[in-house]
Amino acid sequence: MVHPLPKVTLAGDFILAPDATVGPRVIKEHELIYFINPRRFVYQLEEEMYSLNQPCVVLQRPGIDHHYWGEGDISLRHQFVHFTPGEMLGHMLPNWSTQSYFPLENNSLIPELFSELLHIVSDKGYGWEERCGALIFAMVSHLLEAGTDTEAHKLPIELQHAIHYIEIHLADPIPVKELSRQANWSHEHFTRMFKRYVGLSPMQYILSRRIERACRLMANKPYHIREISEMSGFQSEQYFSRCFRKLKGMSPSAYRHKIREVRPAETDRLDKAWKGRHPLNTYFVQ
Question: What is the CB neighbour count within 10 angstroms for residue 124?
Fold first, then answer.
């Protein structure tokens, strides 16, 4: 039986650490993601990449490879709901363009509707399925109707390829001249365009990605600092430590101690600061 309204399968309101990476992944349902406070985050949707620098929504088709990661030092809060479209929305989706990224205006109703949806699905009171379905229908139909200029936020294809190359070669030498050659741009033009769209020079971006990779390794793997520096693309442990201290304000060893001992308290602080009518960092599953 096909439900007339969309049906929630998973929802949540999560805070991601500054060095977090979600994906790459493929999910079988539609997904609506509201990025509340992105700062220098990148969202990759198959071969397309978007620079997330303002509150925005991503409407994700099922079966699409995607992931996102951050470059700044600010935690990312995002709300999401996985859903099956139902009969009413199902009639509209065939006319959906390829647009998936929707920057939000200050007067958008999406934040309030998303907050209400999460409250309802967490509380599961009377008629919660139908109420959630109505809210999803309202949000998605509004997005499909809205006309926005996504090209202004989409990275040029040459930079998309360059960033993809950087991500899979972080442990290897990455000459900027080689990146510019692959883009078929001059070194100067490549560097200028990279800084314009990404906010960092190519070398600054490569360095920041290597440091974030090292942060993830320190958080999740029991490697020695020397091994982590090599796996992150640094030629020496001393140079790695200098770069790490410059970007993070502490030594790698001090950072490892901090994320193991302090991060739970930091998460509790953020949870209290952003606490609403639904709990944070909790999956709401039907």
Answer: 11
Return the higher-pLDDT residue of 269 and 14.
Answer: 14
Residue 41 and residue 50: Cα distance in Å, rounded? 8
Which of 29-33, 88-92, 146-150 has the least mean pLDDT? Answer: 146-150
According to DSSP, residue 154 is labeled: B
Is the C-alpha dihedral spanning 170, 163, 180, 190 positive or negative? negative
207/75 same-domain check = no
CATH of the domain at 132: 2.60.120.280
Predicted local distance difference test score (pLDDT) of residue 108: 82
List beta partners, residue 68: 22, 43
Q: What is the pLDDT of residues 97-127, one digit of tens each?
A: 667 888 887 778 888 899 999 999 988 888 8
H runs (alpha helix) in the chain: 86-92, 110-123, 128-145, 157-168, 176-183, 187-198, 202-220, 225-231, 237-248, 252-261, 263-273
CATH number, domain with residue 175: 1.10.10.60
Q: What is the pTM of this model?
A: 0.60
pLDDT bin (cut points 50, 70, 90) of residue 72 is: low
> Are residues 69 and 143 both part of a single domain?
yes
Burial of 273 (0-12, 13-18, 19+ CB in 10 A): exposed
Are residues 163 and 40 located together in one domain of the fold?
Answer: no
Measured between alpha carbons, how far is 217 from 222 in angstroms, rounded to an integer?
A: 8
Q: How many folded domains does the chain comprise?
A: 2
Please indicate, yes or no, whether residues 38 and 170 belong to a single structural domain of this protein.
Answer: no
Q: Which domain holds residue 20?
A: 7-153+274-285
